[in-house]
Design goal:
alpha+beta; four-stranded antiparallel beta sheet; 8 strands; 43% helix; 28% strand
């Protein structure tokens, strides 16, 4: 009988030890999960959120002819920017104007571009942007001149953060193509550092 009781005690002790080890493991996992949650919340709190200004460039009514007749919808073209070198554009379509605007702004947030500009708030050099039949000339302007632009190109350079700039449309004035041509020209700029690196010289030697 004593042998049996000893064996039973040993089995009970092993079961208790396993339960204690499982409890410790679960506690450790919970602690690790809490630390991960704290880290993620802290990182989410520390990451800055970019606030964009919005401009609706164009709202037009479009129709689609189907077997049952014409279906009327609305199309919106929006530009967003933080006036610090980030700008984006997007287009949205819906049965209602507010929904089309929301879609356009959402698409613009997913289509952002980083624009280069100098300390005076103008472009580094003269450049021509092209897209389709649209062509836009961009030239640096002296301080205090302001933004000389019109239509969709003005909205792009304003929301990008330029203070003084000349722009001139040399081709088609279709808003979506004009926006793309303007952004194409702004992203084609070369900074003095890039030119010096390409020529293997110092900036002072240019």
């Amino acid at each position: 009988m004593s042998m049996i009781e000893n064996n039973e005690n040993i089995v009970v002790e092993e079961v208790n030890n396993e339960q204690e080890s499982n409890a410790l493991d679960s506690n450790n996992e919970q602690d690790q999960a809490k630390t991960v949650d704290k880290n993620t919340t802290q990182s989410a709190a520390t990451t800055p959120t970019i606030e964009f200004e919005e401009k609706i460039v164009e709202i037009k009514r479009i129709s689609k002819t189907t077997k049952g007749g014409r279906v009327m919808r609305f199309s919106a073209l929006a530009i967003i920017g933080d006036k610090k070198g980030i700008v984006g554009f997007g287009m949205g379509k819906s049965n209602e104007v507010p929904d089309a605007i929301k879609k356009a702004i959402k698409n613009a947030n997913n289509n952002l571009f980083t624009i280069k500009m100098n300390k005076r708030g103008t472009v580094f050099h003269e450049v021509v942007g092209k897209h389709g039949a649209s062509k836009v000339l961009l030239k640096p302007a002296p301080m205090g001149k302001g933004i000389v632009a019109g239509g969709a190109a003005r909205a792009v350079v304003e929301l990008a953060g330029f203070q003084d700039i000349y722009t001139k449309s040399l081709g088609s004035n279709t808003p979506i193509n004009l926006i793309r041509a303007t952004i194409n020209g702004l992203t084609k700029q070369f900074t003095p550092n890039e030119i010096a690196r390409a020529r293997d010289k110092r900036i002072t030697d240019l």
